[in-house]
Amino acid sequence: MKLMKLISSDKILLGLVGLVAVGMSFIYLGKGAVTPPQSIQAKSAATASLTTNSRISALEKELESKLQANILQMEGAGKVQVSVSFSTGLKTEYARNQNVTKSTTKETDKTGGTRETTAVTDNNQVVMPSGSSQPVMVMEDRPEVAGVLIIAEGARDPKVREEIHTAVQTLLNIPSARITVRVMGGP
């Protein structure tokens, strides 16, 4: 008799363990699946990040080319190589539709007391043109220059090195400490 009870309680215990395992697998599989809207949002954010990084790289390359072209025109500079890095990303400001609503309510109770309540609602939304997924841009600033490295053949001459340094500082309007001019070595 005890043996039958033990066997039946083992079957019940085994059944419960099996149910818990199946339930846990459903929970695990349910959390692992990404719903399409989440997937689209993740891809959109990744695309925006890649687009921003490629735009920053393009701006760096454009600035390097312009600086190199200007320095090459300087007397005594010789061959020149320029590297520019930014410390910040693009700064973008979007148009906003700002609505501020103010309402005042005055109440009088039975005993003659008055109570005044003021509610202020501030609605500040980004302006989206109809049919477009991009907001209206008001301003876009270039990133801040972190540093500039110029390697020039003519940098052996201290006068040429100083002229290159001053020209870059003037063109970019950055502190002198962010500019390094070195002598080009090798063949």
Automatic annotation (TrEMBL):
**Top-level lineage group:** Bacteria
* The protein's name: Stage III sporulation protein AG
Q: Which organism is it from?
A: Desulfosporosinus metallidurans
